[in-house]
Amino acid sequence: xxxxxxxxxxxxxxxxxxxxxxxxxxxxxxxxxxxxxxxxxxxxxxxxxxxxxxxxxxxxxxxxxxxxxxxxxxxxxxxxxxxxxxxxxxxxxxxxxxxxxxxxxxxxxxxxxxxxxxxxxxxxxxxxxxxxxxxxxxxxxxxxxxxxxxxxxxxxxxxxxxxxxxxxxxxxxxxxxxxxxxxxxxxxxxxxxxxxxxxxxxxxxxxxxxxxxxxxxxxxxxxxxxxxxxxxxxxxxxxxxxxxxxxxxxxxxxxxxxxxxxxxxxxxxxxxxxxxxxxxxxxxxxxxxxxxxxxxxxxxxxx
Length: 303
Known about the structure:
This protein is mainly α.
């Protein structure tokens, strides 16, 4: 019993480390994507580089392990997971980043993930919900509404991008629920998403606007590393691992760190300063995401 408890604690610690690493990668990803979208690269370019880089990571894994685990997952389930966090997912975020600052993505994507994870976990798994968690979700909803509708002209100009960020949060939280429901192995889930997302890349490159021919080699290489190796492969695996160990509700609570980290990085690198109303909304959403973490561990129901 003691060894079992120690092993469980170690798994929990590793899941927490995985979640924190995912936070850092996500913050860098938003700022790097916004930077290149202001230069030569397009949303399609960055999405393609994401999965081209991730494919380079997972191709050796597939060659070594074969397709046995992917067949066990099933192509229908694999296709659903890929549709949720595969190629359409970064296309949506990068499209949004072409219209709205990185701080918007960093605030709205995580807040939407936390809110939708809460709702879907409650509906699908009947997870126990504490009063503090309900208050936190209410704060997230208030912050989302303030951020999107309460910032005047600038928010109106970026409203389309903001809605795309919210939609991406719905997609990612649905992926998290399915990973838990189907008990998908993290490596298998990530490999399935990357493999199926690489297949339409030639078609995407042929049909979508592209700036790859005029972008510098260093910019393209940096995006392959950041979007592909880190965001496309490492972050997806790390968050999937955290979901399996902690459940989608608890895993989603790593998201509060992302808005602040990205806003600070965006100000330093891109010179994008959120308005006072947007800063207030970020604080409200962050507190809403953080509030359940402050409750006693005995109040947190382990999925």
